[in-house]
Amino acid sequence: MLTNIMGVAVCKGGQSKGLMMEPKHFALNHQEANRSGTATFISEQGAREIELRGFQGALEGNYAQGVMTAFNRLGCVYAGAHRGLLTEILRNEWGYTGYVVTDMINGAEYMNWRDVTFAGGGGCLTENAYDSSIIGDPNSADNMKLIQKDTKFQQELKQMLKYDLYTFANSNTMNGVTSDTRVVRVHPWWETTLIAVNWVTGVLAVAACAWYVSSALSKKEKQ
Description:
Radius of gyration: 23 Å
Mean pLDDT: 86
Number of strands: 6
Strand content: 5-15%
CATH superfamily of the largest domain: Glycoside hydrolase, family 3, N-terminal domain
Shape: globular
CATH architecture of the largest domain: Alpha-Beta Barrel
CATH class of the largest domain: Alpha Beta
Number of domains: 2
Order of helices and strands: HEEHHEEEHEHHHH
Low-confidence stretches: none
Largest sheet: 3 strands, parallel
Number of helices: 8
CATH topology of the largest domain: TIM Barrel
């Protein structure tokens, strides 16, 4: 309950400034080391009375506009694709209307975008495949062909986007935005310089490796 009360206060403060507050990691994230795939077993009563209660205040009151799921499994199901957690409890019972995002994707065979979306999640912190164990861009030609045939997935994705857009519309993201506003990507001088330095450093590193190998081979031939 202390976590619950503190979470509500922090999220209310951020929300009052137009920020999108995002507690994590939801839920039952019992350890930081080797947490990917850790299976957490706990009774529903224990989860509701202890750990879920810590999140409940901020999420049930919609003082938090976002929530990040955990790496671990709840029993044998990945937390970010657990329908009981994300749909039945978070959405249906608590009435949460914000967005849901996973923690960093580390392999589609573990964190699958389709499973995440069908469970009531949606956003993935990094790109991952639609239904393959090969990590890739969901917008790739092959994945887009699969998505175009999957009308049920499209419906679930549409619902997820509705939550996202509702959240953005009630945040500082909309400050100064009008009907004719256009988003323009601007590259500041320091970013261009940094990219150039990275390329030059990379080329020099490759050249140095080539020179080293060449020198080593020349010495070996002389010997």
